[in-house]
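Researcher: Structure for this, please.
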Amino acid sequence: MSKQEVQSVVVKVADPSALGLFGLAMVTLVASTQKLGVTTGLSYVIPWAIFLGAFAQLMAGVFDYKKENLFGGTAFCAYGFFWLAVASSWLINLGVFGETLKGAVDPHQLGFAFFGYLIFSVIMTIGATQTNKVLLLDFIFIDLLFIGLGFSTLGIAEHGMHTLAAYSEIIISLISFYGVAANVINHQFKRQVLPVGKPVRFGGPKA
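Model: Predicted structure, token format:
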């Protein structure tokens, strides 16, 4: 029998960061308007949470994993699943899945989920120090967002924490839009048109 030659096909994948950041930028923009009182209700926030906050970030995360980017893949996928969970929670609270589920809602559970994501975000913030300053700034405000969401949902300093969450969310959106622009424009022009800042270096140079 002749040996069959197996050729490994290397599929190149473009950097999915712009797509993931765009999904984050859009969902936080729409959601922040509701928190700030500019808009009311959640009905038109939910589609953006599912399709931009969840699916766009999940797609970016999967492609980042294909590029062997553990940080990007973990971040985008984790926040994508976050928005799916939040959208589902809103749907339950609105009675979409029936009055039984709606009647059994305990918002404190959501508050503890926010604190769980705060722990995750702090870990990712430390990791973001080795990416660039735009992403690092984004993660710092994500941390503040989860602090505000967690405490306000548990009814602790509710007004102040809600305000913190609202303003953190709109700032996340603006930073993420800048990140989208930097990723796309810098790639297209093959040079740094929009600066993103160098990673934070700890300690002195290696001997």
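Researcher: Any notable elements?
Model: The mean pLDDT is 94. Helices lie at 17-35, 46-66, 70-93, 99-103, 107-128, 133-153, 158-189.
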